[in-house]
Structures are given as structure tokens and as C-alpha cells.
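Section 5: illustrative case.
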């Protein structure tokens, strides 16, 4: 990665190569966001219909949208590592890093809408939630902002590298803060709600680390 343009390319998952936007990139990203945002709205509506629109129902919808957001985020976070470790069949994941990241941002918007609703009902989350998760939401907003072609050069290569690596790692840590709470406690339903996400949360940095070690090994 040598400059901001390359950094924009790296967001698309092809470091140093895809400097220019691929033809049709913008409409494709817009479609991914629309589908992800629509799915999140549908999921939230279904949960609220089942659990009610009181505080508990909204908390259920928050838990559901958080899990939905985790899917595109996990794929965006690990796509490069998966392709490096398991071969070119997984390259499409790496190449679609930007779209997956924007799909995550779209689902997160619905999650934040539910937070706002909770606040309006007088049941605002505690200060720690705002601090820890507000920072994660800020990282997501910056990543989405600088993935816009015209703004992508502003942070420079180092700034972009920092934002991408530190920002995304902070977001996975925010997920870990919830998913690692107690995956093996409670009913079968509780375990099912946590365990798969716990495993994936732990696997994500491990996969990235393994890909880094592999790269260093091959560079020797
Ligand atoms: C990138 C940003 C965010 C991430 C990664 C995230 C992640 C999560 C996760 C994983 C859960 C499920 C918790 C569980 O099942 O135990 C959740 C629920 C929730 N989130 Fe977020 N969240 C984010 C932003 C925010 C923000 C900014 C707020 C409010 C300031 C917030 C408030 C809540 C609340 C109130 C719940 C429901 C907690 C409960 O009652 O169990 N989230 N979030």
C-alpha cells in the first residue's frame, strides 16, 4: 500500500492493485447495503411482532440485529485471511470486503435506530455501553465514510491502514465484549444464541494471525 488510492483499493480487498473503482462498484455497494438494511429491518420487525414493542422486545430486536450485523462484519474482517489460508476459491470474499463492510454498516444503522427507540422510551443503556459501543460505531462510520472513492485518499496510506486494522479489530473486540460473556450458561436456547458467535469471534483474530504468520513465512 503506497498511497491513498491504493488504500482505497485495499478496502476493496485487493491491496495495491484495485486503485481505481471497478466499473459498477457504486451501484453494487448500494445494492448490498439495501439488501442488508432491508433484511435488518425485516428481522427487527419480526422480533418486535413476536416480543412486543416494549423495552424487552426492543432488547430482543437489538440482540437479533447485532447477530445479523456480525455475519457481514466477520466475512469482511476475515475474508483476506481465509483467501490466504484456504486458497483462491475464497478470493471473492476478499474482493468483496468493501461491500461486506458497507452491508455491516447498513445493519448497524438499524441497530442504532433501535437504541434511539429505547432511549425515547426512557430506558437508555448505561454510560459504559455508550462508551464501548459508541466508539465501535464511530469506527464503523469512519470506515464507511473513507470507503467513498472521493474521500478515500484523505487519511493517507498509514492513516487508512490504522483505521482499517485498529478500527476493525476494535469492532471485533466490541462484539467479543458481548459474545464472550457466558456462552455455556443457561438454557439450550441461550447456548445456541451465544456459542456459535463466541466461536466465530475467537476464530476471527486467530485466522488473521495465522494468515500473517504464513505471509511472513513465505516472505523469508
Ligand atoms: C459497532 C457497534 C456495535 C456493536 C458491535 C454492537 C454489538 C452488540 C451485540 C453483540 C449485542 C448482543 C448482546 C447479547 O446478545 O448479549 C448488542 C445488543 C445491544 N446493543 Fe449493540 N452494538 C453496537 C452499537 C451499539 C450502541 C452504539 C449502543 C448504545 C449506545 C448499543 C446498545 C445495545 C443494547 C442496549 C443492546 C441490548 C443489550 C441487552 O439487553 O442484552 N449497541 N450489541
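Designed sequence:
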Amino acid at each position: 500500500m503506497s498511497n491513498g488510492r491504493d488504500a482505497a483499493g485495499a478496502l476493496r480487498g485487493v491491496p495495491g492493485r484495485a486503485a481505481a473503482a471497478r466499473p459498477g462498484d457504486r451501484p453494487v455497494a448500494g445494492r448490498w447495503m439495501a439488501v442488508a438494511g432491508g433484511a435488518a429491518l425485516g428481522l427487527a420487525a419480526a422480533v418486535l411482532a413476536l416480543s412486543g414493542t416494549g423495552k424487552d422486545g426492543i432488547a430482543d430486536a437489538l440482540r437479533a440485529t447485532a447477530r445479523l450485523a456480525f455475519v457481514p462484519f466477520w466475512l469482511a474482517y476475515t475474508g483476506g485471511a481465509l483467501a490466504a489460508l484456504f486458497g483462491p476459491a475464497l478470493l471473492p470474499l476478499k474482493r468483496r470486503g468493501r461491500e461486506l463492510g458497507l452491508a455491516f454498516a447498513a445493519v448497524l444503522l438499524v441497530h442504532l435506530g433501535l437504541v434511539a427507540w429505547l432511549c425515547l422510551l426512557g430506558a437508555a443503556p448505561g454510560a459504559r455501553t455508550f462508551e464501548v459501543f459508541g466508539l465501535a460505531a464511530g469506527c464503523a462510520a469512519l470506515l464507511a465514510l473513507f470507503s467513498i472513492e472521493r474521500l478515500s485518499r484523505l487519511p493517507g496510506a498509514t492513516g487508512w491502514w490504522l483505521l482499517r486494522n485498529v478500527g476493525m479489530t476494535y469492532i471485533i473486540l466490541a462484539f467479543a465484549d458481548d459474545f464472550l460473556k457466558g456462552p455455556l450458561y443457561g438454557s439450550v436456547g441461550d447456548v445456541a444464541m451465544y456459542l456459535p458467535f463466541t466461536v466465530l469471534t475467537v476464530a476471527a483474530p486467530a485466522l488473521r494471525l495465522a494468515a500473517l504468520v504464513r505471509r511472513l513465512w513465505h516472505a523469508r
